[in-house]
Write a structure and sequence with these properties.
Number of strands: 20
Distance between the termini: 36 Å
Largest sheet: 6 strands, mixed
Structural class: alpha+beta
Strand order of the largest sheet: 2-1-6-3-4-5
């Protein structure tokens, strides 16, 4: 067991404005990882923080997630985003976190390298973003290529690159992209710190287009596999590898559905819960939704995925040794559920070629795919309903969303091309879709000009005055809960009915559990064992289980204390909740008096019921996250 009092979190504080940097140490016990320390630094310095967990580089699977924290440009509150595998190389720098302050005088690439010594080489190299973005593979991929062409020869081992695209310059939902290298070549297994707009923050607030990092430092990582196996044997009567294989079955291959990955398993089990055509499917009958799922998803969209990706086993890891092999590919295209849902059925796209074209274009531009998909589907809805003219958005034509004669191949591609044109307007200086201050503000402007019906079709969650987030792509009230951080899985997204007060409590419980994993840099795909074991692992390695658990609850409380969630602004969000409740009764045949009362309330006065439901969730959240509960 390591002595926690002798163990420190090492932070490289870099002022991008003047190039000065210094190392700061924080004792383990005072802080435990990139989340609780990230909050401290974000509010003290308004910094962007990029860090690894204490277990990065260890034998524990899933322990190499790179965590990004700061005040989000789109959510307008503290936010946490993460990407798989990228902490494995970051650990070779011999630090736990990079904290960026200030703004470079010119757009720059940040170079970090540590080769056989105590010092980290730090350089800020001025670049011309537009020139790089227009080269070769364009966008974020061109940034990664350029960084490697410029700096790769300086590294003894493969480095890793974080990159942003044009969306980071023009919108508040720019993401950070990275891809692992294999034998010096970039793979197609993109990983993304997508939610929260941290690509925008990196470029607009700090003047950094990308970061290349790596080194040869060998840290004091936990590498005793036999000891880890004994821990797992004591807890689960299984060795570590066997338990991890069991816990990650969905993400690798699930024999119950004869498919794998989030895309495969979610769509195989979706049935009447499918969200399509900017959520219009919630107004359909269960039979109509199931028919849509069967005809366009099971028999085409999912079938293509299984034949092209699952059967030939086109799959990779995020860059670390891992049994989940969750990166499902078709050549250069990586397939995950939420991006291929938000820029798929939500936009009227049910064909893999069309979805690949739309998603790859959004990825190249460096968008948060879920938020971008939510904006595209909303604007398509307004075009289809003649609420907005195509020329007002700088595009030609309208979407093909009529189900009577929907051609899954041609109409999907038509809709994808329209989506691509809308994305281009968002990233063209002077374009017709200005998102520099966010889609929520853009929606308010359109509502003033064209009527409230325009905004009511835009499904988003509101935070403070301008903060916004397109919710996770699940038809369940938890996805619309008034949590202090939304758009991630810091909430209950199960399909069971919970009275709203209980739902709030369960969302708070999930926040605590998910924060524990993020603060240790653990991938949530391994939560089947990690949530239960992590406190004991901290105790066995650092002797700090009690302080660790206390720290997580305090961190959850600190986040909740700044909760500025705003009651649901778009009417369609209330309709999503009301539709879910009715579906529980009429389709799932749930017998529950509380459910019946809420359904009657929504039928009688939808607006009053929505307010009451929202506030009941809010109460459950806050009473669960008090520092000194009764």
């Amino acid at each position: 067991m390591m002595n926690a009092s002798n163990h420190f979190l090492k932070v490289l504080l870099l002022n991008a404005g003047n190039g000065f940097y210094r190392m700061q140490r924080y004792a383990v016990g005072d802080f435990f990882g990139p989340v609780d320390l990230g909050i401290h630094l974000a509010y003290k310095h308004h910094s962007l923080n990029i860090g690894a967990g204490l277990l990065a580089g260890s034998v524990l699977p899933g322990s190499n997630r790179l965590i990004v924290t700061g005040i989000s440009p789109c959510w307008h509150g503290f936010y946490i985003s993460s990407m798989g595998g990228a902490a494995l190389v970051f650990d070779n720098l011999g630090i736990n976190m990079l904290s960026i302050l200030g703004k470079a005088s010119q757009p720059s690439l940040l170079y970090l390298n540590r080769t056989h010594g105590e010092e980290i080489e730090v350089e800020l190299v001025p670049v011309q973003p537009d020139r790089i973005w227009s080269q070769g593979r364009r966008g974020v991929y061109a940034v990664m290529d350029y960084a490697l062409e410029t700096f790769a020869a300086r590294y003894e081992d493969d480095p890793r690159v974080l990159a942003v695209g044009p969306a980071a310059l023009c919108t508040d939902i720019g993401a950070i992209c990275s891809a692992p290298l294999k034998k010096g070549e970039l793979t197609h297994a993109d990983t993304w710190a997508g939610r929260g707009g941290f690509g925008t923050k990196l470029l607009q607030e700090h003047g950094i287009l990308g970061v290349i990092y790596g080194g040869t430092h060998v840290d004091e990582d936990f590498c005793n596999r036999s000891v880890a196996d004994q821990w797992f044997e004591d807890k689960f009567n299984q060795r570590m590898a066997a338990k991890d294989m069991e816990a990650t079955a969905k993400y690798r291959f699930d024999p119950k559905f004869n498919t794998g990955g989030t895309f495969g398993v979610n769509y195989a089990s979706m049935e009447g819960n499918l969200l399509a055509f900017n959520y219009r499917s919630i107004y359909w009958s269960e039979e109509e939704r199931r028919n849509l799922h069967s005809r366009l998803v099971l028999d085409h969209y999912l079938k293509q995925f299984n034949e092209e990706t699952i059967v030939p086993k086109q799959q990779r890891t995020c860059g670390e040794p891992c049994a989940a092999v969750c990166k499902k590919l078709n050549g250069e295209y990586k397939k995950d559920y939420e991006p291929y849902q938000a820029m798929g059925p939500l936009c009227g796209v049910f064909d893999q070629r069309a979805a690949e074209a739309l998603n790859h274009h959004g990825d190249t531009l460096g968008f948060d795919a879920i938020s971008a998909g939510g904006v595209i589907s909303w604007l398509m809805d307004c075009l289809d309903e003649n609420l907005i003219a195509p020329e007002a958005l700088g595009v030609e034509g309208r979407p093909r969303w009529k189900m009577d004669d929907f051609d899954v191949t041609h109409d999907s591609m038509h809709n994808a091309r329209l989506g691509i044109a809308l994305l281009d307007q968002m990233t063209t200086p002077g374009g017709k879709i200005p998102l520099a201050f966010g889609a929520r503000k853009f929606a308010r402007r359109l509502a003033r000009e064209k009527g409230k019906a325009v905004r009511d079709r835009f499904v988003y969650l509101a935070f403070a005055r301008q903060g916004w987030m397109v919710p996770n792509q699940y038809w369940t009230p938890g996805a619309f809960a008034p949590m202090a951080i939304m758009g991630k899985y810091y909430m209950h997204y199960g399909r069971d009915f919970l009275p709203p007060r209980d739902l709030g409590r369960e969302c708070a419980r999930r926040l605590v559990q998910e924060l524990m994993l993020d603060n240790m840099g653990m991938c949530r795909f391994h939560r089947g064992w990690a949530e239960e074991m992590m406190p004991d692992i901290v105790e066995k390695i650092f002797g700090e289980k009690k302080r660790f658990l206390r720290s997580i609850h305090l961190t959850a409380g600190r986040i909740a204390s700044r909760n500025a969630s705003v009651f649901w602004e778009p009417e369609r969000v209330a309709d999503l909740v009301a539709g879910f409740l009715k579906k529980k009764k009429t389709v799932d045949d749930i017998k529950n008096e509380a459910l019946d009362r809420w359904i009657d309330f929504f039928d009688t006065d939808k607006n009053a019921a929505a307010y009451e439901f929202w506030y009941e969730i809010h109460k459950g959240i806050h009473e669960s996250l008090r520092e000194f509960p009764d």
